[in-house]
Amino acid sequence: MFPWVDGFHWTFGHILFLSLFFAVVLVITATLISAVNRTVKNLRTQSAAELCWKSDFTELPDTERHCRHEIAGRVASRMCDNAFDCRRCAKYADFAALPAAGMAHDLGLKYSNDRFYHRGHTWLQPNEDGTLTVGLDELAEHLVGKPDSIRMPAIGERIETNGTAWRMTKNGNEIRVRAPIEGEVVETGGPASGWYLKIRPQLDPADPVTLRHLLRGAEVRWWLSRELERLQLQLRTPNTAPSLADGGVLVNDMMDAIPEADWNNVLASTFLEA
Amino acid sequence: MASAALADRRWIARSEERSSLGRFLLWLAPWALLLAAGVYAGGLCLWFGLNQTNMDNRFAFGLWIFLDLSIIALGAGAFFTGFLVYILKRAELKPILNTAVVVGFICYSGAVTILGIDVGQPLRSWFTFWHPNTHSMLTEVTFCITCYLAVLSLEYVPILLRNRELRKLPSFLIFEHQLHKLVPVLAAVGTFLSFFHQGSLGGLYGVLRGRPFAFREGFLIWPSTFFLFILSAIAAGPSFLMLITAAVEKVTGKHLVAEDVYRRLGLISGTLLGVYVAAKSIDTLIWLNVTSAAAGVAPWRYYEYKPFGTPLLFIEIVLLGLLPAFLLTFRKTASRRGWLLSAAALACGGVLINRFVMTVQTLALPTLPFDEFLTYTPSWQEVASFGGVIGYGVILYSLSYRYLPLFAKPKGDQSHVSLG
Amino acid sequence: MSARYGMVIDLDRCTGCGSCMVACASENNVPSLPQASDRTGLTPMLVRRISNGKQDESRREAFVPILCMQCEHETPCVSVCPQQAVEVDKATGIVMQMPQRCLGCRYCMTACPYHARYFNWWDPAWPAGMEKSLSPGVAVRMRGVVEKCNLCHGRLHSAQEKAAGAGKREIDPADYVPACVEACPTGAIRFGNLADDNDPVSQETHSPEAFRLLARIGTEPKVFYKSKEPWVRALADGSGAEVKRG
CA-based, 20 to 30 A from B342: which of A174, B198, C2, C184? Predict the structure, then answer.
């Protein structure tokens, strides 16, 4: 195999064969090392969260990848092909120009017009000092109720859009709440004041593109309406038809109220887990 | 048990439906038994020696070598599909790609395991690398198959890491993404390696000057069997994938792959099979009339011995070669699933017969004029060892199907999501 | 000067007594394997019986000792061994098998048209006490490796040691006689250096009665056979239509 090993012959065939072999081994090893290197680099820089999200997005079922413009009634039917990254969507401007015409019922849920909503059920509210407050929306709060444990990020920690805002557990289920925006954590809420994050954003909130990917105004109602329909389907007992009682109010702490439901699936849909 | 079922559910992709844990374990049970029997038989051979088999000094190669060659030929679908998808950019075969990788991995890892038991001194396996004989086809096979198994493992890893729970670790998910980007490199290396080892497996027999039945002339150092084996392998590989996929659809009761994919695989397999049959026929004629005569053996002498008479040649080339090639490409039959799968089975059978003829029939035929035609029947240890490989294969595939996105439906057009 | 050791085996003189087989087994520490069959036994020297197939008074029989033919041209076993455990010794022309390097893949056994190679299907074992009778100069082979006749290389070593002890470069040919040659009672097996034109065995190989097995395959064996019987000489090119086993 090597020149100093007994049986090595300096013939053309021998040299050619071993050269090819070592070349192949080199290519295979280089591929592996390259992949490892790039992974380490990704993990060190900020691209890790973005890559993970994009990969997770491709695994989401069709029902969770509808384009916001479809929800807003601007277009009849469209699946998002850009991982909800409206900020860098080439077609955003075209769709946004179309008139909106959504449909929704009265939901019995609170949502406010000055908040921006992420598809993973968190809201974002800009503060006067330039920071942003992030909290769990009503639907998610009603679902989870009081979490068994919660792990907030540390002050000064950096979070990424679609990455992890904070983690909770409830009834043996692990929930990862996705962050609606990237930035540095400056303050975290507690059990007394409610669970929230205050973030110093990386990009300027005044720039319309910064929050473009978040839902606001009327489209939040239309989106929540669809989400409630989805919940109804997922929570019903098997073999019964879905029903939506008019004017029904969401029960508090549904995970405790309906323990037998397929929470694995419901939570994955709600919090955009693959 | 309920909590076990819940824990198990977390490992299954949430948009997929799979049978309950209990039913799955029930499905695995007989294959696990088969695997256990195989491990026991293989263990006996390793512990007591190869006298546990029925091989002897005349049949130095037996059932294992025949089945190893067959399984490697059938596993050629892995490299060939990779070649078609990544090098020739035939994206319509993407749905079958993951299955091809898993099947390839099973075939090659199984073959290597059996080879480890087949040699008298398995711990000396590294000697071939340390003292390679570049004149020997077996050296080439050893080097190539080892490298290729490494390539298949690296191609398997991304599929593994896309598991629902494993992907939650960011390092795993990112590594999967980065490795997946480099898969075309692996596909190219895999194609190069497979070309050579599929060929060298044929070359093993084609260079045997002392066995006029197997010996062939060829191109430079490569006998014609080198090229014929490559052709038959890439013809049978897609057919084998078709059979596996159809079997999986039958067992799971799901529609996993578009009908179009079957047709395409059939067309590829049938066309290549047709080319192979033509080449093989020409080669057989040359061998019978020129090569064999030069060694002093009149051609009909080989076929004097029952049951290896000329019908076997006819079966190999016409019944299990020309016929499936026709059925797989002729529009009327190729458009019907039943015909397609039957033809695929015939094609795979043809490759098996070819490997059998080259390994077992070669050794059965006498070389010295005072030798006899001998037969051999494999011992139960030999059969059980290979049964163990089948058990292992079904278990690994079942686990992959249950927990990994083998047949992920294309969710929107993935190519639009720019992965940075 | 390098030698080319070969043999001429006179089939007209071979009585089929089997002394050569016994001597070979004894010299080369071949284990007694009561569990072996005629297809799994270790017989680096094996005497085969042939006949002309007739059943009446015209029936003729002969015995053919088969051993490694020491092929010279594109030696089949040498070219196929994946880890170069076999090679042709340039100094002696002997096809050397290294059991320590053998992987036991048995590819060489497939390649050898003379079936002169044997596999150790079992661990070597001798009846209690018999291990004291083993030849000291010959290594015992382990289970799982291939072995074959190597022209009693142990005896060549002894001859070389003796020559070196006497300060000579070349061995005395009388000192190097393989066990089968020594044991043959009729002198049917004759051994010599085919590179030496003065060697009587070398000269015999040119006799019109001399032939080699499967000559048309082109392995150029250094073991020649000799017979005046035409039906025996028909063995040469393998067509031997008249030749039958047993």
Answer: B198
